[in-house]
Amino acid sequence: MIGAVAHRPSGTDASSRTRGAPGRPDDRRILAPGVVIDGATKRFGAKTALDDVSLTIEPGSFLVLLGPSGSGKTTLLRCLAGIERLSAGRIAIGDRLVADGERHHVAPERRDLSMVFQDYALWPHLTAEQNIAFAIARLRLPKSEAARRSRELLGRVGLAGLGERFPNELSGGEQQRVSLARALAAGTGLLLFDEPLSNLDAGLREGLRVEIATLAREAAATSIYITHDQAEAFALADRIGVLHGGRLVQLGTPEDVYLRPVSAFVAQFTGLAGALRASTEGPTGPNQVRVRLDAVDAHAVAVAPAARDAAAGTPGRLMLRHAAVRLAPPSESGIVARIADTAFRGRGYDHAVELPWGDRLVGIHDERRWSRGDTVCLSLDPAACFFFPDDPPPHGAESRSAAVSPAPDRPWPGPQAS
Ligand SMILES: Nc1ncnc2c1ncn2[C@@H]1O[C@H](COP(=O)(O)OP(=O)(O)OP(=O)(O)O)[C@@H](O)[C@H]1O
Ligand SMILES: [Mg+2]
């Protein structure tokens, strides 16, 4: 499969153009289109893989779509790229309507975008430099300029001198760098990434993540990046969209999603020390409730986006971010627990603690090392505790939350020949 599905469009909207960043290796203009997705739905037989997804992506911004396996991430990216046809809904890239239900579908190579795949998708019979040159060829640059640009890009992804190697002579990390260079070489304003780091080991992942973040922003491109790794999402995104069962359930900045998850699912999926059974006692602020733990005579205050008006005694779960829990010596007040595990993390220690009734909390950081078997007291920071009642919201309530911005109510561009 060709990684870069790109060409220069014949007609473009001047208002969606962003000038290339100063210091770019050439002075060509980069097109950074906004993307509008409205009611995107994709069915495979009886299976609805994407369910009425609407969102707007600002030109030049970096959106990460985060969700568990099977939540529809790849399906959404493939619909954006034009590899899949929508069953219903619309997609506009810049000023072009590229998909309108099953009626209208612009082919991938006419959408002016590039894709970086999880499995690199390099041409095995072409060298690294030829793989990049292949994408550049579509720009119809003079040969010498194409070669110069190929080498320049290889240098920028840290592969200077390796241009003559074939993909099977490169490591996974090096192949993914070639794939990144190829996507940038195509000069498209829209970059799509499908879990590009998930086949790489932890050390390489962090290095390449920084390069993707830097190079995509230097190129002034609009980027859409999918992952199931919440740490990667928080590190990369201007905005994060969380997918669950084919629906977009929250859209916001990393801080929004971390500090104000709209549902128990989002809280759980974006990282918790653990969850404790509890029930409400009453409101303590506009968005806060006091809860009583079921297992022990202890109370906590928590952010409660879905339980503001809940009657006292409503059962649910108190969900704790790692940063919510502080460890203290047993003489102080708080919930008594026992240290079950201690892991050295360089900048301090992560602890697992066991509560007397059997629940476990993990990933609790402290600069000090507590020993296995130590008795400690836990204190909880209300800003990083969330209470969600047990009763699930009616179907779709998550995605109707104010945190999800719908596609704007504006005139849509007319269809273009596909
Ligand atoms: N061609 C297809 N035919 C039938 N079902 C499909 C097809 N493609 C995807 N699906 C189903 O649609 C759902 C969403 O799949 P998708 O590949 O988009 O998930 P994902 O979020 O990318 O998951 P992962 O993290 O595992 O890559 C899954 O239940 C999957 O089985
Ligand atoms: Mg996928």
What is shown here, in short?
This protein is α+β, with helices and mostly antiparallel strands. The chain contains 8 helices and 23 strands.
How do the strands and helices of this protein lay out in sequence?
Blueprint: E1 17-18, E2 30-31, E3 35-44, E4 47-57, E5 62-66, H1 73-81, E6 88-93, E7 96-100, E8 104-105, E9 113-116, H2 128-137, H3 143-156, H4 172-185, E10 190-194, H5 202-218, E11 222-227, H6 230-236, E12 239-244, E13 247-252, H7 254-259, H8 264-269, E14 274-285, E15 288-293, E16 299-303, E17 315-320, E18 325-328, E19 335-344, E20 349-354, E21 360-366, E22 375-380, E23 385-389
Parallel strand pairs: 5-11, 5-12, 9-10, 10-11
Antiparallel strand pairs: 1-2, 3-4, 3-6, 6-7, 7-8, 12-13, 14-15, 14-17, 15-16, 17-23, 18-22, 19-20, 19-22, 20-21
Helix pairs in contact: 2-3, 2-4, 3-4, 4-5
Bound molecules: adenosine-5'-triphosphate and magnesium ion.
Please, could you describe this protein's structure?
The structure is a single chain. With about 425 residues, this protein is an alpha+beta fold. The chain has 2 domains: about 15-260, P-loop containing nucleotide triphosphate hydrolases (Rossmann fold, 3-Layer(aba) Sandwich), CATH 3.40.50.300; about 270-390, Beta Barrel (OB fold (Dihydrolipoamide Acetyltransferase, E2P)), CATH 2.40.50.140. It has 8 helices and 23 strands. It has helices at about 75-80, 130-135, 145-155, 170-185, 200-220, 230-235, 255-260, 265-270, and strands at about 15-20, 30, 35-45, 45-55, 60-65, 90-95, 95-100, 105, 115, 190-195, 220-225, 240-245, 245-250, 275-285, 290-295, 300-305, 315-320, 325-330, 335-345, 350-355, 360-365, 375-380, 385-390. The strands form 5 sheets. A 6-stranded mixed beta sheet has the order 9-10-11-5-12-13, sandwiched between helices. A hairpin with a 5-residue loop joins β20 (about 350-355) and β21. α2 (about 130-135) runs parallel beside α4 and α3 packs across α4. The longest helix has 17 residues, at about 200-220. It is globular, with a radius of gyration of 24 Å. The protein starts with 16 loop residues before the first strand and ends in a 29-residue tail after the last strand. The relative contact order is 0.14. The site of adenosine-5'-triphosphate has 12 residues, from β4 and α1.
